[in-house]
Amino acid sequence: MVKNIKLIAVVFLVIVSFFILLKGLNKTNNYSPNLNSSKIDFNFKAKFLYSDEESTLYELINDKDFSIINIWASWCLPCREEHSFLLKLKSLDKLNTIGINYKDNEINAKKFIKELGNPYSKIVVDPSGINSIELGAYGVPETLLVHNKTKTILKKYIGPLDDKKLAELKMIIKNEN
Amino acid sequence: MKIKILVLTIFYLIGSFNLSYATNSEKVDRISKNLRCLICQGQSVYDSQSDFALSMKILIQNKIDEGKNDEQIYNFLKSKYGEWIVYDPEINKNTVLLWVLPLILFAFGSLLIFRKVSIK
Predict the structure, then answer these.
(1) Which residues 62-91 in chain B show a CB within 8 A of chain A?
(2) What is the spatial distance between Cα A98 and Cα A55, in angstroms, rounded to a whole number?
(3) ipTM for this prediction
(4) What pTM does this model have?
(5) DSSP letter at A143?
(6) Which CATH number among 1.10.8.640, 3.10.450.40, 1.10.3720.10, 3.90.420.10 corresponds to the domain B2-88?
(7) What is the CA A159 to chain-centroid distance, rounded?
(8) Which of chain B's residues have a Cβ under 8 Å away from the Cβ of A129?
(9) Do residue A29 and residue B41 have CB atoms under 8 angstroms apart?
């Protein structure tokens, strides 16, 4: 009897661990951040791409109701893909789009904009990448939707924008009024 | 004599400059060893050469120069990236098992030993 119980226990344990491991195989192990602090300080200074002036991000996100902060670089291939979606966002009149040029060469960055169009109202540069870290970013491309009045992040997308994300962004803006 | 003093002063200045620089970068190393590089799995920020990790090291250096202590830097990064970025997990409802399980196992083990010994 005791032997039987032991056997059953072992078989049970093997089966349970098999299914736990099987489930673990299907789970993507990439870490996705939860926005535990949606309010962020924008008070770091950054230089503009097209002039030598500096500004804090705090000043930049003042006009209009919402801001998109998009982190991009000319060397980043997915940024090229998402560019057309950013251009589409330009038609929304409640939205102000700000670009952060991440660890890029100035000439290449300007070439990129000249080639694909400029969806941004302002572009600031982040040559060392530390401003992006202050924003809690991982890399390029990354897009933040910010509520200008409360200075909170409403949504954060890691990776390039697509049709689905664009529709979601529009929904959030529509519902937030 | 004058030349000797001059040479010594120059060496002293170089030495002290190196020393202050070294202590600062050691501090960066120490902090970055405790940080998980979020985009490169299984590496610390110290080990990684990814863009993210390199920027992170510059940021830590800047924060140290601003006079922030270790605790403040960790808290700053936790507020940006969440608990996951530090290797040292805090006690909360998700990690309570992690902290308590070794204690339970230890108590259980000692109980077993105690019983075996007392039976003899």
Answers:
(1) 62, 79-82, 84
(2) 12
(3) 0.73
(4) 0.72
(5) E
(6) 1.10.8.640
(7) 6
(8) 51-52, 54-55, 58
(9) yes
